[in-house]
Amino acid sequence: MQSVAIRKRRFMALLIDWLYISAYLILLFGVMQIVYWLAFNGIPTFSYLQSQLIATFTSVIPVIIIFSIMEGSFQAATFGKRFNHLRISYPNHFKSRSVIRNMVKFLPWQLGHMGVIHGMYKDFNWFAMTLIYVSMLLAVLYIMMVLIRQDQRHLPDLLAGTFVEKSS
User: Which residues contact 18 (CB under 8 A, 6 or more apart)?
Assistant: First the structure.
């Protein structure tokens, strides 16, 4: 029964974290629209490489850093985990594992960005579609692992040596 309760809390935490990330992305979009119109009198044209770098350095990396700091902090929890009374448990107190956990956790998002940008600039060929499909497969794998595994650990938890537990 405890296992089912934590699973439900994990998915609620995921939803709340997704809402925070979405709010960040909407804010980023608004700020960048203002910057583009003030500095360039419109949205500039970006190259393939520039688009890949912009997506990585304005969305994925900041979110990885923020989530790693939150999960590596004293509370060891993101916004969603705090709201749902969950925390990340680190064996041997290696809080730097939060960086590994979050890099792997957001890998599907980055691969999805890369695939879509590649498709927009160079055609949705086998490379773009492979990135997109791997992105989706990893996301589904992460969810299925939480649902199926008795300890509810997904790939980011296994690689970082962490697990999600109820906070006291």
Answer: 80
